[in-house]
Amino acid sequence: MMRRPPPNRQNRSRSKIAKLSLGQADQKEVYRGSSKQDLLDLTREEMVGHLGASLDLAPFRARQLIAWLYRRCVTDFSQMTDIAKTVRDELAARCIISRPQCRTVLIAQDGTRKYLFQLADGNCIESVLIHQPSRWTLCVSSQVGCAIGCSFCRTAKMGFKRNLLAAEIVGQVLAVKEDIARLSAHETPPAAVEDFSNIVFMGMGEPLHNLDNVIRAVCILNDNLGLNYSARKITVSTSGLVPAIKKFGASRAGANLAISLNATTDAVRSVLMPINKKYPIAELIGALREYPLKRGRRITIEYVMISGLNDTLADLARLPKLLRGIPVKINLIPYNASPEESYAPPPPAHVAFWQQSLLDAGMNSTIRWSKGLDINAACGQLATAFKDKQAV
Ligand code: SF4
After folding, report:
1. What is the pLDDT of residues 210-221, one digit of tens each?
2. 126 an active-site residue?
3. According to the model, what pLDDT value does residue 185 have?
4. 153 inside domain
5. Probe ligand 1: pick from 127, 139, 146, 260, max atoms within 8 Å of CB?
6. Whose CA is nearest to atom 4 of ligand 1?
7. Together in a domain, 153 and 111
8. Which of 129, 147, 201, 309 has the fewest CB atoms found within 10 Å of its own CB?
9. Which DSSP string do the residues of 14-72 spell out, in sequence order?
């Protein structure tokens, strides 16, 4: 006689089968917890097509909606007063305008704000509003967790859960904008926070593992009828997925590219970033040499400096040679220490020495001192803590 599997195993196999049999559209429904179309998931062209096909609405309705969604940050169709009530009712019956739910905001002494957002399916992601001397920058997540497994990263410890939908990426931007507007309107004196001019995809996840949704999100952020972020002000960072770098370069996104390099030898880079075994340094640099850069742009090279591991004089000599001839800006990032890691940042004087040496070698180089140290602003730290708390 066949034995029935224990109930938990049976449930597991059922959910596995359900997952395998879900199409892309069904998967989206599970993530957003609704069978309705999320309007934040559509570029302008897609919205024109969707409204025409499913509601028989003229293209100008998409333009009206984009203004309500992104200029006035409205989430309730009944507030769209220049749209006829019958149309609003139809829209409400078939569409939603999502927002991630803000669970926590941590505020650092330097003004950096770290948000923990919960998505409709219960998963959590982080966004960080970073205070820099001359501007504010928003760092958004592109995945729940990450599959890349970099040894210096907290998000890697979560493993990979899922890709974010374009709406969930754009939703982070809108939710932070709403928080800033609320603070400016209600706090006396106003909070020391300003709207952000730049957006970087450097939060949780490997953006180029979620290429389609990231490109769609960049196009939505870039739409001049909506949020109107110039592609020059948007930067997408990757651990070095060579085929995806080529696709991203050939795409309509037009955003800046940043590469998380972090080593000058394959031996060290493979320890820090296992993806290097698949796409070693020479292949990665080769892809950067062929990258179709727009005039006046540079590829950002991120170099997380870890004391005694990738900050030797030999590394300093190799780095300019590796990158010679590619328009780059090298961003030196002293490692953001965490009590659970054995890695440590180099002393500030050593970081400054590296920067000066790179400048002397004719390379464009900056230092990104960690922001929000008192609130664990490195990606993944807050979401992991929240998950651990839920598990207790
Ligand atoms: S550093 Fe980025 S790519 Fe590497 S594991 Fe963390 S989130 Fe993923």
Report:
1. 999 999 999 999
2. yes
3. 79
4. yes
5. 146
6. 150
7. yes
8. 147
9. HHHHHHHH--HHHHHHHHHT-SSEEGGG--HHHHHHHHHHHH---HHHHHHHHIIIIIS
- Report the residue count for the chain: 392
Q: How many angstroms separate the alpha carbon of residue 16 from the centre of ligand 1?
A: 26
Q: Ligand 1 site: residues with CB under 6 angstroms? A: 146, 148-150, 153, 155-156, 204-206, 239, 379
Mean pLDDT by 10 residues, the chain (392 residues): 42 44 74 91 97 94 97 97 95 97 92 94 96 92 97 92 98 96 74 87 97 98 97 97 98 97 98 98 98 96 97 98 98 86 93 98 93 62 58 46
Query: What is the residue range of 32's domain?
Result: 24-96
Residue 3 within a domain? no
Q: Are residues 42 and 122 in the same domain?
A: no
Give 48 Cα–ligand 1 centroid separation in angstroms: 36
> Is 79 contained in some domain?
yes
Spatial separation of the C-alpha atoms in residues 238 and 205, rounded to whole Å: 9
Is residue 155 within 8 A of residue 205, CB to CB? The reply is yes
> In 3D, which of 202, 214, 106, 211 has the Cα closest to residue 150?
202
Q: d(Cα 154, Cα 90) in Å, to the nearest integer?
A: 44
